[in-house]
Structure formats: structure tokens, C-alpha cells
Amino acid sequence: MRQRPKLSEPPNGDRVHPRRSGTQAVEELQHAIGNRAVTQLIEVARQPAAKTKKAKPFYQEVYDGIAEEKKRMVRWKYKDYDTGKQVEGTPFGGFAIPYFRALERLSKAVEAGDKQLIKKELEALLAMDLPGGAPYFISEELGSQLVSRMVMLGLDADAAKLRAWVKERNRGITLTGSFGPDERLWEMTLQRVLGQTAPTKDKAGENLEQLMRAFRAICK
Known about the structure:
Blueprint: H1 22-46, H2 60-72, E1 77-79, E2 86-88, H3 97-112, H4 115-126, H5 140-152, H6 156-169, H7 180-196, H8 201-218
Antiparallel strand pairs: 1-2
């Protein structure tokens, strides 16, 4: 009587027939690879998602100015004669914070493209009675950003007001006769116009009009 072939015991404990066909071997290999792939996918899914770094707003210098003002504030305590305890008094300083907050509100309105709010916040900023010198000034970069975006929104008159105000604020900081800020404003507006949409024949006239308005605002 023919005896049945004995099953071998491989090192990993799996019972395998010694005369497996090539097809069976391939199927077992595919099964093993598939299991490993599923395991790897599960491990990747369990890993926490990589945190994307939030981009800073174009008016970040406003927040930096507020932080610097708060850092310079003097904190003090006094004795409460009723309780005999030391009480925290109102911090002294931070006089420029209202100015920075007004600049922040205008920047946010410009960022949102809210024309009515831009006009309102611009008038509030220009109406402030501010002393001269640091920190009551605005960088040429931020000034150009605001003016360029306002020109893009069609607020030419308001952009001209803001530009004149920026120049007055920065008197003594920017070199007299320097065309650097004007060149930067033109370059910034040009990039914004050309980058907003794909160039088309229908859009060319509108883009040219925006550039001409920006040019007139700069050359005033």
C-alpha cells in the first residue's frame, strides 16, 4: 500500500506540503506581501498628521509692535489700606497699543476686501492724534501692501490718502528723494495684477486699467 507523504515542519511553524506547486508558492507569497502592505497602511494611518505651519499675515509687524509695547509696560503693586494686602495696579505704558490696534483693523479690512469697512477704518486711523517718531510709524513694506491691495479694489482715492499718511509718518526715516518705496509699490502691484488670473484677451483690458490706476497713484 502506498504511504501518504509526510508533512514537513518549517522553522516558522507553518505546516507546508513538501511538493507544493509553483502556483501555490506564488499565492502564499502574494498573501504574505499583502498582509505586510495592510499592516504598513494601518501604521501610517495611526500616525498623527503632520502639522502645517500657519503663514504669518502680511501685517505681522503690527502684532510684533503690540508685543513689544506690552513687554515695555511697567507693572506695580500698592498696599490696600483696608485689607493691608498688596494689590496689583494698572500697568503703566503701552500708549502705542491703540495705534497698532487701529492699524490692525484697517489691515484686516483690506485683507478681507471689505470696501466700506476699509473706508471706515482708514478714516479712524487718519483721525488719530499721534506723536511723531517711534513706534508711531509704519514700514514701507506694510504701507505698500495696503496701498497696492486698495488700488486693486478700486479704492484709488483712499489709497492715495493712506500713501500720503505713510510718507508723513515716516518722514526722517525714509531718505528724501528715494524712489525705493515707489518702485517696490509698483513691483508689488504688477505682480498682484499679473498673478490674479490666467492672462486672457478679455482680462487684458481690465489688467491694464488696474496698472494704469496704480501708476497714477504712485506718480502723484
